[in-house]
Design goal:
Elements (H helix, E strand, L loop, with lengths): L2 H11 L14 H9 L1 H6 L10 E8 L2 E7 L2 H13 L1 H8 L25 H15 L1 E5 L4 H4 L4 H7 L1 H6 L4 H4 L2 H11 L13 H19 L5 H4 E4 L2 E5 L6 H13 L11 E4 L8 H6 L10 H18 L5 H9 L6 H17 L4 H10 L8 H17 L3 H13 L4 E2 L12 H12 L3 E2 L5 H4 L12 H10 L9 H4 L4 H6 L13 E4 L2 E4 L5 H13 L14
Parallel strand pairs: 7-8
Antiparallel strand pairs: 1-2, 3-5, 3-6, 4-5, 9-10
InterPro entries: RT_dom
Length: 551
């Protein structure tokens, strides 16, 4: 297998679906099939295929949400292949950056995301160095970065904006990998030129190339940028020299972003350091909290922790304090009495803060074998929250609540799902169909809306995942033909190869036991990486700046 093919397989198997989806969703078998069928798809003009992505809504903070994308696999294959085949040129461009924490490596090792997550340790260390050497710094980011990216900015960043403008009609430019990347991204979102999908690792790579271009434009004004800047994705920290004002730095940034039709986020722009308030970061208090060993005081300690965390969440509405607090709480070593108290607090924090709900759902499943697990109360909580999430089309919360219901072997009343079965979400739909086939839904369910996607048009729609997966699994609630899949020029090959995107046997990988965090039935590198990350998040090794991961 060539290096290019290894990169392609990694991007399609472990860097495709958003990390935030529940465990059953995977793309491993798709990657193997796509690699095998490259020549066949090329002959069938895969470059002409267009589709809509599924929008998967996740909470950020307060009432702010982020739209992730579950991109059609045929279009994602095109983007991933162009990046894999032209990686040396793309990597060379990314390496032009002197301030990014991004590591330009596509990891091909099994069970790891191809693109490394943000190195917050490095960011924290650099931020302290900049404060020490300059006394002040500007912190800012780009307004709605991924949704605002102009797809034509991809070739601008890779080839140069002037070259692209001057040669836009030339055959050389039209057939360049950079222009083909622009087209491949657009074709996966109904040819829209505004925005790139959030979720796939390929988008992280493309976003990095654009910000490297922004850096170059900033450097033409701030020549010593490499000495006083650090960047992670679109977040920038730049030291302010003695003879400068914050306005000077912001002007240079605004001018550079304008070249790529992007804008500074005024709401998140701040000056930190000498002459300005140096506020206390909430994250330090939460991560250093310790539960006492006296059984009589455990409940009081939990009350203090959660009440303090909720106050910090109120005071820091633009950060997902509740999620971090829930993760910290999951690591406490507790007695049986304390465990029950923690479970109720976790349910309350999830009720107040949607950003913590998915993690709390996983936590509840991990505690189901506990001596004092309140099964009835947890069941009522999940059923109520399903109705709430369905009302607001909050697909992320719905997916995790439904998955938790499956793992807890709950029986879900059909009327709880009246709104759910009318949502345009394959992720939610497949978990519902899984529950239905397991006999875990009591009463009649009206699947008529979802059946409308059982055709070739459905395979190009935002419901492509349901359209394909329900056919391959025989999950449609009525006897429906599957030839719209088997005869399709691209999905037909996946059908023949028995490719599946939903693994019915997948379980939650983490168990938060009395002695800390452990792997539950998963000794894979990925499982260990998840455990390590959760431990790191609540350890003393976390440096200043980590709070940005929860904003």
């Amino acid at each position: 297998m060539t290096d290019s093919t290894k990169r392609l397989k990694a991007l399609l198997s472990r860097g495709f679906f958003p990390n935030e989806l529940p465990p059953p969703f995977h793309t491993n078998s798709f990657a193997s099939s796509a690699v095998k069928r490259q020549e066949e798809w090329q002959k069938r003009k895969v470059h002409q295929f267009t589709s809509f992505p599924e929008a998967y809504s996740i909470p950020r903070h307060s009432d702010i949400r982020r739209k992730l994308s579950v991109v059609n696999p045929i279009n994602q294959y095109r983007v991933a292949k162009l990046i894999a085949d032209n990686w040396s040129q793309i990597k060379e461009k990314i390496n032009d950056s002197q301030i990014s924490e991004f590591d330009p490596v596509i990891r091909t090792k099994k069970d790891l995301r191809p693109v490394r997550p943000v190195n917050f340790d490095r960011v924290g260390r650099e931020k302290i160095r900049i404060m020490a050497m300059y006394g002040r710094y500007i912190k800012t980011d780009v307004v709605r970065f991924y949704p605002s990216i102009y797809t034509h900015a991809v070739p601008w960043a890779l080839l140069g904006k002037a070259y692209c403008k001057d040669n836009k009609d030339s055959q050389e430019f039209k057939t360049s990998y950079a222009n083909l990347l622009d087209k491949a991204v657009r074709d996966g979102q109904d040819r829209q030129t505004i925005g790139i999908p959030i979720g796939p690792d390929t988008s992280r790579i493309l976003a990095e190339t654009i910000m490297v271009g922004v850096e170059a434009a900033v450097k033409s004004i701030i020549s010593d940028l490499a000495d006083r800047g650090i960047r992670y994705v679109d977040d920038l920290i730049i030291g302010i020299s003695r003879d400068e004002t914050p306005t000077n730095v912001l002007s240079a940034l605004s001018s550079a972003l304008y070249e790529f039709e992007l804008e500074l986020n005024a709401e998140k722009t701040q000056t930190v350091g000498m002459g300005y308030d140096h506020g206390h970061e909430w994250i330090h208090d939460i991560r250093t909290f310790e539960i006492g060993q006296n059984n009589a005081s455990v409940r009081d300690d939990l009350d203090s922790f959660f009440e303090s965390s909720l106050q910090k969440a109120y005071d820091n509405r633009k950060s997902n304090v509740a999620l971090y607090a829930a993760k910290k709480a999951s690591t406490f070593n507790l007695t049986d009495a304390g465990e029950l108290h923690r479970i109720y607090w976790m349910m309350y924090i999830a009720r107040r803060h949607a950003g913590a709900l998915a993690f709390v759902a996983q936590f509840l499943v991990s505690r189901k074998e506990g001596k004092n697990f309140p099964s009835s109360d947890v069941r009522n909580f999940i059923l109520e929250q399903i109705k709430v999430a369905a009302t607001y089309n909050h697909t992320h919360e719905l997916a995790w609540l439904l998955f938790a219901a499956r793992e807890l072997e709950m029986v879900v009343p059909a009327d709880t799902l009246d709104r759910v079965v009318k949502l345009r979400s394959s992720v939610v739909a497949l978990i519902i169909y899984d529950l239905w086939h397991l006999g875990r839904i009591k009463g009649a369910v009206d699947f008529s809306f979802w059946r409308e996607f059982a055709n070739a048009s459905g395979l190009k729609s935002e419901m492509w995942l349901l359209s394909y997966e329900a056919a391959i699994k025989g999950w449609w609630d009525q006897q429906l033909p599957t030839d719209y899949v088997s005869d399709h020029p691209f999905f037909g090959g996946l059908f023949t190869d028995k490719v599946e995107f939903y693994d019915k046997a997948a379980k939650i990988r983490l168990s938060t036991g009395k002695n800390g965090i452990s792997a539950e039935g998963d000794s894979s590198v990925e499982g260990e990486a998840l455990i390590t990350r959760l431990r790191d998040e609540v350890s003393f090794r976390v440096l200043p700046g980590f709070a940005d991961d929860y904003s």
